[in-house]
Design goal:
Largest sheet: 8 strands, mixed
Strand order of the largest sheet: 10-11-12-13-17-16-15-14
InterPro entries: 6-blade_b-propeller_TolB-like, WD40/YVTN_repeat-like_dom_sf
Biased composition (Basic residues): 30-39
Region (Disordered): 1-97
Number of helices: 3
Shape: globular
Number of strands: 24
Order of helices and strands: HHHEEEEEEEEEEEEEEEEEEEEEEEE
Radius of gyration: 53 Å
CATH superfamily of the largest domain: TolB, C-terminal domain
Length: 371
Amino acid sequence: MSESFLKGIEANEAESTTTNKKVDGDRNVKIKHNLRKRKHTDEEDDKEKDTASSSSKQSRTKQTESKRPGKAQQSTVLLERTRRRRTKPRNIVSKANVSSPQDDFAKLFLKKMNIITNINIGMNTCIHGICITNDNLIWVNDSKHHVKLFDSAGNILRSVDLEKSPVFNCCTPNGDLLFTEGYALGARAEVIMVPREGDPRRLADLSTYAKNLCGLLCQEEMIYIVCRSKAPQKYFVIKLDMEGEVIETYRPSPKNVNINHIISHYGRLYVMGTNNSSLFLLENDRISTKDKVNKVSLRDTFTASACVDNHGNVLIGSRLTIYVMDPSLQRLHKIRTDDLGSIRSTAVDHRDQLWIGTYEGNLYAAHYLSI
C-alpha cells in the first residue's frame, strides 16, 4: 500500500473524527438547550398551577365568606331559630290532662253527698239493717225491737214491734221482710218473716245447724243465709226454699274465713269477710276461699254493711266512711261521712238514693252520684 494512500486514509479518519466530535458537540449543546427549555416550561407550569390553585382557594374562601353571616346577622339568625323552637307545636300531652281509670271512676261520685232526708228513729237506737222492696219501699230495723216501712220520700207506712232485736235483713220478691238476729244478746238461730200486712212469724229454725245467723239474701225464689257454727267455730252458707226448708249447705274450701255479709253481683253470689272486705264466690256447692275475688281490700276495716247499687258498684259502710268498689272489683273510691255519724247499714233504692242508718239512730237518704 502506498504512503500517500495511507496518509489520505489518516487524513479522512482525522476529518471524520473531527466531524463526529463537532456533531457530538452540537448534539450535546442541543440536548442541554432542550433540557433547560423543558425545565423552564415545567417551572412555568408549576407556577401556573400554584396560581390557579391559589385563585381557586381564594374564590372558595370568598364564596364561603360571602355566605357566612356577620356577627349581627348571626345574632338575628339565632334569635329566629329560638323563636321558632318556642312557637313550634310539640306533640307532648301534659300529665295533668291525662286521667287514669281511677280518676274517671272517682268523677262518678259527688265530693260531698247531698242529704235529702234525715229521720231520727230514736235516741241511742242503732239502725242495724235497711233493705229495698221491688216497688221502692224501704224496710228499716233498729235495736229497740222495731221494724218500720217507709216510702222513698221518708214517710212511715208501717211499724211493727218485735220480741227480739233484728239485725240483718233482706226483702222477698213480693216485698215482705226477712231478718236474723246476728250476734245480739240472746240471739236465736231463726229466720223471721214480717209481711207487709199481717203479723210476724218464724220462717225457719236452724238451731240444729248453727249457733248464729248473719247476713241473708233472697234470689230466684231461694234464701241464702250466712251461718256460724258452734265450737269449733266455722262459717258456712245455708240455702232455703221460700217455705224455710233447707236445700243445700255451702262450706268454705280450702280454708275457713270469717264472713258476715252476702251480696248478689250480676247474678253471682259472694260472701264478704268481716274485717277486710274480701269477697269470696259461692260456686260448685262451696265457698271458694283460695283467693279473694276483688283486687282491692280494706285491711283492719270492720264491714258494718254491704250492698250493690243499680250500676254494679259495691258499697261498704264502715264507721265514718262509705267505700265503693267499681263493677270490675278492681278500683276503690272513698266517701267520707263524718257529719252523719257511725254507719251501721246501707242500701240504694231504685232512684239512686243511698239510704244510711247510723249507730246514733239517724236515717238518711242522700244523692251520692254525680251523673
